[in-house]
Amino acid sequence: MQKFTPADTAPLLIFGGPYSNLAATQAIKEISQQLDIPTGNILCTGDIVAYCASPQETTDVIHEWGISVVQGNCEESLGNDASDCGCGFDTGSSCDLLSAGWFNFAKPRVSADAKAWMASLPAHISFDWAGLTMHAIHGGLNSINQFIFASDTAEQTQQQADSGGDVIISGHCGIPFGRILTNGTWLNAGVIGMPANDGQPDTWYMLITPEADGRITASWHALQYDVQDSISKMHQAGLNTPYADALNTGYWPSTDILPPAEQSATGQPLSLSPLPLSPGIV
Question: pTM of the predicted model, to two decimals?
């Protein structure tokens, strides 16, 4: 298991899904520098490579940055020379058919060394920070490509959280949220490489911050980056998929994976309130 020992005195910067979006990845690195967050306090929840046009370049930035990374299904698939992304889409669905385009584009453009590194990434990272026990995963505790959304029942989420410590940090679903459970808290940082189907081009990341009064707070923040550069790179590479439009419009080309509540929220700007995580509150 990868060792993650962040300093209690600095915030945690958490993000998921760079998705081969080089401009967004460079932007989140700049945010970490602006906030003076040390590399040892930064965690990516996986799926470095996906929809956009810079799979190797994005992987290089993440790898050379030296941050901790949970293996996503895309890293698992590329690292093991799989024939598809292993995203968990229903066979024949729009998401499944669209995924073949970007996966077949990315696979030959990621180096053997990068794939070997992806294969070596941990499926989960557990750590203690500021008095909390945290467990970072990509999808679900028992399945790397399980989709868990804010609208899932408390019982479904609680069953996962019961064996994961005070706080579960997850990714994969592409939409940020936080949920306080009977026992513990479930956090999804969102992704930086693709909008959250909220009609906005900005993407999302999460900070977990030790406050001066001893409280600990999770908060979600919009990431602004050079969207047009990412779209241009897709067109220049011949990757003319609907995901290029999605970068600009903020609308996903397919919502097959979304539960009814998330489908009905399509195009609605997200508003996420900070969530307290202090021991005794979770």
Answer: 0.94
